[in-house]
Amino acid sequence: MLRRSRISTSTPLIALLLAVALTSPLASSAGAGPAPELPDPYYPADGAPGLDVLHYDVHDRYRFSDRFVSGVTTVRLKPDAEAASFSLDLLLKVDSVKVDGVEAEFDKPDAHELVITPADPLTASDPVDVTVRYHGFPQRISWQGESNWLADGHEVVTMNEPHMAAWWFPSNDHPSDKARFDIRITTGKDREVVSNGVRVERTVNGKRATTHWRMSDPMATYLAFFAAGDFVIEKGKAHGLRYYNAVSRQLGLADRQRALFALRKSAKVTAWLQDELGDYPFASTGGVVTSLDVGFALENQSRPTYGSWIYGGVVVHELAHQWFGDAVSVARWQDIWLNEGFATYMELRWTEAHGGRSTSASLHQQYRDSREDDSFWSLDIADPCAGQSPCDWRKLFASAVYERGSMALAALRNVIGTDDFRKLLRRWVSLHGGGNATVEEFEALAEEVSGDELDVFFQAWLSADTAPPNTAAYGL
């Protein structure tokens, strides 16, 4: 995720250099992650321990006139142990639940939790199909201060972090439980529907059409999305990668052309990121630009979503997330700097690789611009919401998580050397792609790759409440 406020206030020079670089003519199999640690102290209502979701088959019907959703989702899951009941996360009203085709009892003790009691207890490690029918008006729903449905009479896009799934399908809603997805959306046949992965088919039935998208690689629930509306579509293959881009026709002509120009760079940026980080993790790339007034962009797996203010730098950021955040997902929300710090660092690295300021020069400039007692240094970015539950998203996505996170990586590169740093990033993705990982695991891998003792370095950059000493030992 990249919030517009960060773009406009924190990195104007970086944004300019990235835009210049993008316009210059010069210019998987699942990995084993740690066992889910649920409940997550940041969001204890999310997800359920002891469940492993294998696949979601989501079929929602969307009505633009009143923004009504009705749907049926089949969740294929297996329990770690015998279970007489289990729970999923869903904010819509539930009509019925079946487990392996047999009606099951269900209850909603609160707006968010769906407790299911099957006719027969679940058996350890035996997969079952849980089919839930539901309906509601997601735009009217607020949960823990979040009102996440983004829609008007012409367009809808399901994009948000850390929560989005519960507004439109039932799930084990925590990034530690990734699964494969089939997503079908039925709406008026005059609307285009875009989602994750590869479009399988579009079937017209009278005045309505159902579009089927498939994500064949493991995906965290908050990264699943769909957008529906009147879009300009561009698709094809470039730089050896399939792409599918969509830009809202609700935008003015100049904004549409600018957005399409930025999205057309997605394949080029992705190809460059492959050289830096290893093979692109998914089967397709691209993006969606919405006309809705969104103040952030989001790294939906394989196909990020952007506001009309899209520019080159945010494309680099969201596509870098395809490796850092999507392929390798956080095991706990406190590990968020592994997503945002890394994507922000790759913005700096793109600028450097395309003739702009070096990552080291950017590091030193940011260090000089932040006073030693500045609040920028007081947040523990390895645990930004320590002691707070639920976590305030303003801390989870604080500028320090992005900027200090990227500075820490630039400094680490200075300490261990460019060759070992490149090896570290590629091994990180190779080891954990398709799964989840923690800050502690990254620190351990950095020590393994470099042969250096880095505890003091990481403590200073991630957790200390003052700026690291301005010495070579800290990459400065």
TrEMBL record:
Protein name per UniProt: Aminopeptidase N
Cofactors named for this entry: Zn(2+)
Domain of life: Bacteria
EC code(s) of this entry: 3.4.11.2
Gene Ontology MF term list: alanyl aminopeptidase activity; metallopeptidase activity; zinc ion binding
Catalytic activity: Release of an N-terminal amino acid, Xaa-|-Yaa- from a peptide, amide or arylamide. Xaa is preferably Ala, but may be most amino acids including Pro (slow action). When a terminal hydrophobic residue is followed by a prolyl residue, the two may be released as an intact Xaa-Pro dipeptide
Domain Peptidase M1 membrane alanine aminopeptidase intervals: 313-461
Domain Aminopeptidase N-like N-terminal: 55-223
Species, as recorded: Nocardioides humilatus
Keywords in alphabetical order: Hydrolase, Metal-binding, Metalloprotease, Protease, Signal, Zinc
Family according to the record: Belongs to the peptidase M1 family.
Stretch forming the signal peptide: 1-32
Single GO biological process annotation from the record: proteolysis
Pfam family, any one: Peptidase_M1
Main EC class the enzyme belongs to: hydrolase
InterPro entries per UniProt: Aminopeptidase_N-like_N, Aminopeptidase_N-like_N_sf, Peptidase_M1, Peptidase_M1_aminopeptidases, Peptidase_M1_dom, Peptidase_M4/M1_CTD_sf
Gene3D superfamilies, per the entry: Neutral Protease Domain 2, tricorn interacting facor f3 domain
